Amino acid sequence: MHPSSLPLEKLEQQCRWSFSRASGPGGQHRNKVETAASIEHLASGIRASASEERSQNRNRQVALHRLRCALAVDYPGPSEEGSLEHGSGGGVSPGASELWRAYCLSGRIRICETNEHFPSLLAEVFGAVLADGLDLSKTAERFGTSSTQLVKFFSIYPPALVRINQGLVQRGLSPRVSTSKR
To answer: How far apart are CA 28 and CA 43, in angstroms?
Structure first.
């Protein structure tokens, strides 16, 4: 199972937390207490952090979600050669999972970044795009949607689009997807 899809408790067993005082707005409470949370996935070295909330517990939740998104795109870590072709976001099956079908109705993907299932779906679809040689049309067909919908889905987490564009450039192709915010 891909780390981004693990139950939170199991994923946290593979990680190390650190806490610090957050700077910036938030009043005396924020500056006196270690509310900023950082988490590192030990096997990959992938990190995420959050410090925008006054609550350490809320910052932990946000940092963990950010880590799961980063793992979806960056795990396993890129190798020197062919990382986009060989690295996979989660052991892609020939078609879409039941979870994907629950969020992709009539070809339209309905999910937001803060949804607890977003990192798992990101790993699944990003891995499928890599397995399909960065052919978004092929992946879209297998997942019952359009390449435009996949681009919109990846735009929720822009590092995914950046990685796809890098892969296209590595292959001598022009980037076909925009990394600008919608």
So the answer is: 37
